[in-house]
Amino acid sequence: MKRRLFALLIAGLLGWSGVAAAEELVIYSGRSDRFVKPVVEAFSDKTGIKVVLHSGSSTALLNKLKLEGPRTSADIYISNDAGNLQKGSEMSLFKPVSATLADRIPANYRAMDNSWIGVSARARVLVVNKNQNDTAFVKSVFDLADPRLAGKLAITHSGNESYIAGVTVYMQKAGNEKTSAWLAGMKNNINNSVFNKHSKIVKAVADGKKAIGLVNHYYIYRHLEKHPDAPIQILLPDQGKDDIGVAWNVAGVAVSKYSQHQHAAEKFIDFVTSQAGQQLFASVNREYPTRPGVAAAPEVPAAGSFKVADVPMAELGKYRNQTLDLIEAVGMP
Amino acid sequence: MNVVAQQAWYRLYSFMTLRGALTLLVVLAAIIPLVYVVSSSMDLDLAGWQGLWSSRLPGLLWNTLSLAVLVAAGCFVLGVSAAWWVTRREFPGRRLAVWLMVMPLTIPTYVFAHIYTVLLDDDGWLGQLWVTLFGTSPPELFNIAGVTFVLTLAGFSYVFLLVQDALSRSQQDLEEAARIQGATSSQVFRRINLPLLRPAIAAGLSVVVLHVLSDFGAVSMLRFQTFTLSIYLQMNSRFDFNAAAGLSLVLVSLSLTFLVLERFFRNRQRYYGSGKAKRISPRRATRFEVTMIWFWLGLITLFAVALPAIWMVVWSWDAWVDDLITTEFWGYVRNSMFVSIAAASITIFAALPVALYHARERSLLSQSFLYASSVGFVLPGPVIALGILAFVLANMPVLYGGMLVLVLAMVVRFLPLAIHAQESAAQQLTPSIEEAACNLGAGSWERLRRVTLPMIRGGIISAWVLVFIDTLKELPATLILRPTGFDTLPVRIWIEASEEMLELAAPAALMLVLGTLPILWFLIRPGRSTP
Fold it and tell me: Whole-angstrom Cα distance, residue B424 to residue B156?
């Protein structure tokens, strides 16, 4: 009896490895399940290709890809952060997408060699409480270091991907010294307490506990959807003639270099860069579709109506470690 | 002289058996991650080490050690006090109290961390209460006090279990003798009970400390930089494997030093009770004592069991009503159960040769085998996963991506738990019984099958239960090694919690608890043999 059970167990253990052999697309996704699932389902409905979704953190999955090398079962890698995508590109984990597909997306939203493609974009913006006028002087993210905001500023912890990517942009545009001084100033304004979620920053500003916060644009509208009367509004920073513009980051996709299903993988890229796919991928999270001519959700400021920092997305990966060093040197929590 | 030489020869000869070979095989498998860590940290040059030393090590050492001390202190207070009342006083609901004190073992640290950050939010249950009571915003958990709070709640049950067991076996004569000599009850506690309990307390606290050193879930949710979290971040956001290995090496040395010290202090003192002495029977509690006991135990239960349980049930109910519990969810349950059962079953077999060898030999070699196989407990989960991954990819690539690799990692990770439980059971077995079997003509396999195994059954069951529970809760290694698309309950809790989908995280956490409860019964069933 016992022996039979044991044999069964071993058979089960060995058998499991063979299951994933059928024709299907394996996606390593570092983006929220709830944003990826609708896209994947629509793709499967349209093409009939079955998709296995393996979710996790973007960086951990990139590590996995790297370690697995030629043995990976991944066909597609999705990340919420251009920094990760570029890092993967530098470690030559991806296979460039064909130029016809890549050309649908402007060059600054994809890798130089087309090894990854930005699919949706988001802006680093400020959220302010309408009822508190002590933030009226703020025009730039660098004003967040102003001592007048002591105790009134809300930012996330410095492990957040969007936060790191934002700091990289400011570093590229304003230089290390200014960015370092800016971080130190913000550190004085936050009373040693950072937020672990962007959504909590928006909530704290809406509740009047904080006057101003640095977030991705869609968190504001996500809050407004649930609480339409919340006294918050978006403030697009650095819009003056000589200012750097809003920091921008993209979520994107890449085809694994060792994918056994290149054809299906190309189909997926085709889908997410198509008009319909772009609309779906971006709109579930109120992001900006990267393909020109596809409109973002109506409530967000229209793309093109504001100035965006002209840092190619590929740089976000290149300077990532330098950014981390700078943040750590200042000792941001 | 001749006798000594003969003995040495016999020892060597006896090791060259199947049992010896098996032992060696298990130990070799267990140290795979360590070999990986050592070899990767070799690649770290002097400048790299200096960089680590100047930028990180002092802070990490301070954070990690102070956290370990604080959590150990917290677990000591909660565990010993609860165990004392439960074994020394007869009061209504005593059996229930034992259950309540052990139940926190079913709740993983990251679930505790997640639940309390939600509850202590400005609009959480506790947060609102705090605001009405004190008028200030509720305390934050993202600091050492918060992490200590969470890890103490998640860990004090280990101390409780071991101390309660020791207390229920302690004998009456010593205490009576002290009382006759005129000692007060506090003197008796300090001079008789505490020294006798020291091995149990030390064992309990060492389990707690090792859990603190290798905890990933709570510290990463609360972003408290300990060695384990920093190692994970080095690998994951900087892709710096060598620095991660260097940090791991420091952590391993730290933990091993701690283990050796703990064994050393425990071995120095032994007390053997005589078989005839009367065991202490609990005294009936006075009405005042019953109130006090239930006030204290109730307070512990409130935070360690009741609040998390209510939270899980409420949110799970929401999920149920909203029809969010789909077939996928039952798939996660099945996956979790499968991995845990497989890992626990294989681990008890793997642990057996090492445990028996040490229980019988007690030599330097057996001792070093014991330490070598403790690697799983002193290395953080992500590092174990990477070590196994690197080994499998280099040597047995066919296995990669399969379930076997995941199970292997679990076995390596929780082997020490099983060895410990089985070894202490085997120690209580007098060699004379085996010798008798030998005299009656039983071969070594027959002896093992018909004498040794049945007699240490209690230890084997405990080992299975401990490994099952820990595998069910395991997060970091599973995250890295699971086959593609293979989600377990902890993985789902992790994903949903980081997306703040509470109504999806709660049912998964609830299933973890419900799945562990019947298993837990083995640990605290009446009349169990000691673990």
Answer: 21
Chain B contact present for A44, CB below 8 A: no
- Is residue B508 within 8 angstroms of chain A, CB to CB? no
The answer to whether B314 contacts chain A (CB < 8 Å) is no
* Digit-coded pLDDT (tens) for B45-75: 888 888 778 777 888 999 999 999 999 999 9
A32 lies in the same domain as A132: no
Residue from B480, B487, B503 nearest B332 by CA: B487
Q: Which residues of B touch A17 (CB under 8 A)?
A: 398-399, 401-404, 483
Quick one: pLDDT band at residue A17, thresholds 50, 70, 90?
A: very low
Which chain B residues are within 8 Å of A30, Cβ to Cβ?
Answer: none
Tell me the one-letter amino acid at B437. Answer: A
Residues from chain B contacting residue A59 (CB–CB below 8 Å): 236-237, 239
The single residue listed with the structure tokens 């004090």 is: B156
CA distance A14 to chain B (A): 7
Judgement on whether residues A68 and A163 belong to the same structural domain of the protein? no
Burial bucket for residue B485 (CB in 10 Å: 0-12, 13-18, 19+): middle
Given CB atoms, is B57 within the 8 Å cutoff of chain A?
no
Q: What integer pLDDT is reported at residue B266 of this predicted model? A: 67
pLDDT of residue B56: 78
The mean predicted confidence, pLDDT, of chain A is 89
- Residue A310 is assigned to a structural domain of this protein: no
Residues A177 and A95 in one domain: no
Q: Minimum mean pLDDT among A134-148, B9-23, B170-184: which range?
A: B9-23
Query: A61: nearest CA in chain B?
Result: B480
- B224 vs chain A: nearest CA distance in angstroms? 10
Using the beta-carbon criterion (under 8 Å), do B483 and A20 form an inter-chain contact? yes
Q: Does any domain span residue A75?
A: yes
Q: Is the pLDDT of residue A1 over 70?
A: no
Give SS3 for A50: coil
Same domain, A136 and A194: yes
The partner residue sitting opposite A9, judged by closest CB among B345, B483, B485, is B345
CA dist B342 and B65 (Å) reads: 34
Q: Please write the tens of the pLDDT for every residue from A145-164.
A: 999 999 999 999 888 888 99
A63-73 residue pLDDT tens: 889 888 888 88
Q: Please answer yes or no on whether A14 and B479 come within 8 Å at the CB atom.
A: no
Its ipTM equals 0.78
Q: What's the domain count of chain A?
A: 2
The strand ranges marked E within A131-221 are 153-154, 212-216
Q: Among partner residues A14, A32, A60, which is closest to B479 by beta-carbon distance?
A: A60
In this predicted structure, what is the pLDDT of residue B12? 58
Query: Burial level of A270, CB count in 10 A (0-12/13-18/19+)?
Result: middle
What average pLDDT score do residues A57-80 get?
Answer: 89
Whether A110 and A134 share a structural domain: no
Contact residues, chain A, for B238 at CB < 8 Å: 321, 324
**Mean of per-residue pLDDT scores for chain B:** 85
Decide if A60 and B338 are in contact by the 8 Å CB cutoff: no
CB distance from B327 to chain A under 8 Å?
no
H-helix or E-strand spanning residue A53? strand A51-55
Q: Which domain holds residue A183?
A: 122-247+320-330
d(CA A229, CA A206): 9
